[in-house]
Predict the structure.
Amino acid sequence: MRDSLQKMGAADIELRPGKSGQFDVTIDGDVRYSRARTGRFPTDAEIEDLL
């Protein structure tokens, strides 16, 4: 995931383990994607759209 984000131009990437399969994408302190809300992991295209 980190490599994909860096290829898309994301500069500062921090990956932290979550609880129970938690997966959130936070950009500039704002949660932009939450697996808890959607019930699934994002696609690469969805992540790219967030950037």
